[in-house]
Amino acid sequence: MWNIHQAYIDGAFVPVQGSEVLDVVDPTTEEVIGRATMGHREDAKRAIAAAGRAQSFMRGTAKADRIDMLRRLQAAVLARSGQLRDVTVEGYGGPRARAQWVSRYASECFAGAAQTLEEFPLTHAVGSAQVVLQPVGVAALIAPWNSAVGTICSKLASALAAGCATVIKPSELSPIQTQVLAEALHDADLPPGVINILLGRGTDVGDEISTSPGVARISFTGSTATGKLIARAAVDTMKRVSLSLSGKSASIVLDDADLDLAVPQAIAAAFMNNGQACVAGTRLLVPRARADDIIERVRAGVAAMRVGDPRGPATEVGPLASRAQFDRVRRFIRRGLEQGATLVVGGESRPEHLARGFFVRPTVFADVRHNMDIAREEIFGPVLSILAYEDEDEAIRIANDSVYGLQAYVFSSEPERARRLALQLEAGTGLINRTQRELLGPVRGGKPSGIGREFGAAGLASYLESKTIGLRA
Ligand code: NAD
Fold first, then answer.
1. Using a 6 Å cutoff on CB, does residue 22 contact ligand 1?
2. Closest residue by Cα to residue 206 from 240, 170, 180
3. Residue of 129, 205, 307, 459 with fewest CB within 10 Å of its CB?
């Protein structure tokens, strides 16, 4: 049984002062596997104060000092990657292969940030003046539950590269991932207060972070609804805010695509992380002339997916993270049927071989119209909607007909044609014939999918403020 009742503040694990205790439930078995005590506002104040003290130290660090910190974090997280993989599987049912990838990726984020910082000019001359880029101040990193380890490490890497001390608030729904990650970060032996981590409710710890004058910058990943609350709360203290939010990304199969390559990737894009990925390609746009062939291939591919215990090395789709997720996703499947979409495979009932656990059948709908809920709303589960288009212009129109603008996938045998099309899509990232993004490039969304960029030079710059020093000639 996990018993988590400490936060990591000022370089030490300390008991939290909050009194709310949440059960930790294994979504595969529905059994309670632990208890986690939530921090509250007073704990957040302590963490922010510790980060404020550490900020004085961070402000004086040179590039080489920060690169050394990043390298130590890379090694510390890598050393725990097996444990991080296991808690990702246990904590929210992430399939083992993906959890393995995420735990490696988490350590690579530090290496990527170190490389970016190495090449990033922190001063430059303009006319008779010098422009100096300085850390913006204490950065708060607020993360969702669906990829806690990767999200936190990627934000932390950019913040530390810029010289910001941090307060990290993972989701109250990811306590065991948080615990193991905090232990890994502690192993890196950074000065006290540079990294602080506490669990807590958004309305309590999250609100304290969003309104505290001790926090200069918030990097948030989560739903669009919460992002709006944070942005509003943060404006009174003029925090720099970046928001990575919800998505409803399109995968476009062009008429020249090699379907043997495109269809498996489109399926992978839709069902990654059990469909609980902000960047999941959950709207599949197919040329009408090839629709029957593609739908049949998708049906066969999804019907063959191995759904079950995420600990199994061959499992492709595990359970949803919580009962709330389980109920929500099944509600969307029901609504798809009620609104007249054609069920291709899957459905509302649980997989026959799985009597317990928050398992939903990987589900595909065809004949989906743009105004159906399953075409418009982020479902955050293993549900794919197929929409047919006549020509390229219509494909672009349908892809852009979404309130969101996070990521887009294009499959084509002509990369230059796909690139031209990707440039017309309203999405922060375009991926052509691939589903993994470039680690050194900036990503995240436009429209209500977010503000600002993470990763790469743009991600680093978002934690820096420029100061122009005018020199008399
Ligand atoms: P959520 O918005 O409910 O919660 C995210 C975080 O915000 C949690 O830590 C939560 O405690 C905190 N929070 C809640 N209310 C708050 C408040 N008032 N003030 C401050 N903090 C508050 O999201 P979730 O359910 O944990 O995650 C799923 C969502 O995250 C999906 O919409 C998904 O698309 C999105 N997401 C986006 C990205 C991206 O990079 N764009 C990545 C992963 C997930």
1. no
2. 170
3. 129
Among 278, 378, 383, the mutation site with the greatest number of ligand 1 atoms within 8 A of its Cβ is 278
- Residue 133 · residue 469 · CB < 8 Å: no
Query: Which amino acid makes up residue 233?
Result: A
Whole-number pLDDT of residue 445: 81
Closest C-alpha residue for ligand 1 atom 6? 144
Tokens of 231: 């942005």
Candidates 273, 270, 340, 256; CA nearest to 299 is 270
How far apart are the CA of 415 and the centre of ligand 1, in A?
A: 35
90 lines ligand 1 (CB under 6 A): no
CB distance 191 to 26 below 8 Å? no
Strands (DSSP E) found in 247-289: 250-253, 283-287
In this structure, what token pair is assigned to residue 310?
């995420």
Label residue 128 by pLDDT band (50, 70, 90). Answer: very high
State the pLDDT at residue 441. Answer: 79
- Dihedral angle computed from the Cα positions of residues 77, 82, 88 and 89, in that order, rounded to the nearest 10 degrees: 170
- How many angstroms separate the CA atoms of 121 and 389, rounded? 46
pTM over 0.70: yes
Residue 20 has pLDDT above 80, yes or no: yes
Q: Please name the helix (run of DSSP H) or strand (run of DSSP E) that holds residue 57, with its range, or none.
A: helix 41-59
Closest CA relative to residue 113, chosen from 85, 80, 72: 72
Q: How far is CA 145 from CA 15, 222, 261, 278, 448, in A?
A: 22, 9, 31, 11, 20
Give CA–CA dist 123/129, Å, rounded.
11
**pLDDT at 447 (0 to 100):** 87
Going from the Cα of 467 to the center of ligand 1, the distance in angstroms, rounded, reads 32
Question: Tokens 């990767």 appear where?
Answer: 150
Q: Please, which pLDDT band fits residue 394 given cuts at 50, 70 and 90?
A: very high
pLDDT above 90: residue 48: yes
At 78, is the secondary structure helix, strand, or coil? helix
Average of per-residue pLDDT across 34-57: 97
Let me know if 14 is exposed, middle or buried by CB neighbors in 10 A (0-12, 13-18, 19+): middle
Residue type, 429: T
Rounded Cα–Cα distance for residues 200 and 210 (Å) = 13
Strands 240-244 and 217-221: parallel
Q: What CA–CA distance (Å, rounded) separates 270 from 145?
A: 19
Q: What is the distance in A from the centroid of ligand 1 to the CA of 115? A: 29
Rg (CA), the chain: 22
Tokens of 32: 């309670």
Cβ–ligand 1 contact at 247 (below 6 Å): yes
Does 439 score more than 80 pLDDT? Answer: no
